[in-house]
Design a protein that fits this description.
mainly alpha, rod-shaped, 200 residues, disordered N terminus
Length: 200
């Protein structure tokens, strides 16, 4: 809604002239009444009274002529200032209406933006969840593989130890058996066989 100012310069100056002329007539009439109520019982209009009225009229007209332009300029300046203020207010109103329309659009799309943000966070959460699950599965597989290797190593160490124990026991037993069953003749014969093998 635009504010419209219609100002007709000739109409305004004509109205001002009528207003000033009416004010002047009122001043002249009031002056006449003041002279008439001078306090004398007999009301008479003398020639000097005419001169006073004419003198006042000339003074009022001269004052009107002197003051008319500055007052008219001041009033015109005030009118222009008011017009400029109204133009500025109109521009501000148009800008405010644009901003209001923009805010209404943003408010209308706010729900959609919130929905988009929530869905984006959900998508990111799902991606992070799947990443965590994959890395956890890989870590579990590595731990399981390491545990299997550790168990196999422990079994191998236990087997080696068991073999060594069995071998040591077998050697001890064999030694005991051999010591118990070998005679001095057997020992001599074994030494001779060994020497023969070495010499030949």
């Amino acid at each position: 809604m635009k504010l419209k100012l219609t100002s007709d310069a000739s109409g305004l100056s004509g109205k001002r002239t009528l207003l000033i002329a009416g004010t002047l007539c009122l001043v002249l009439l009031s002056t006449g009444l003041c002279f008439a109520s001078g306090g004398n019982d007999e009301i008479t209009w003398k020639t000097t009274d005419w001169y006073k009225v004419m003198n006042f009229a000339v003074l009022a007209i001269g004052l009107f002529i002197l003051v008319r332009k500055p007052i008219a300029n001041a009033l015109d300046g005030r009118i222009e200032s008011i017009k400029e203020d109204l133009r500025a207010l109109e521009a501000e109103k148009v800008e405010a209406e644009k901003q209001l329309e923009e805010y209404n659009k943003r408010i209308a799309t706010l729900d959609k933006e919130v929905e988009n943000i929530v869905s984006e966070y959900r998508r990111q959460g799902e991606a992070a969840k799947s990443k965590i699950l994959v890395s956890a599965k890989e870590a579990a597989e590595k731990i399981e593989e390491q545990a299997k290797r550790n168990i196999e190593n422990e079994f191998e160490v236990a087997r080696q130890k068991l073999r060594m124990d069995i071998f040591a026991q077998a050697v001890t037993r064999a030694e005991a058996l051999v010591k118990g069953e070998i005679t001095s003749e057997d020992q001599d014969r074994l030494v001779e066989e060994y020497l023969n093998k070495v010499v030949s």
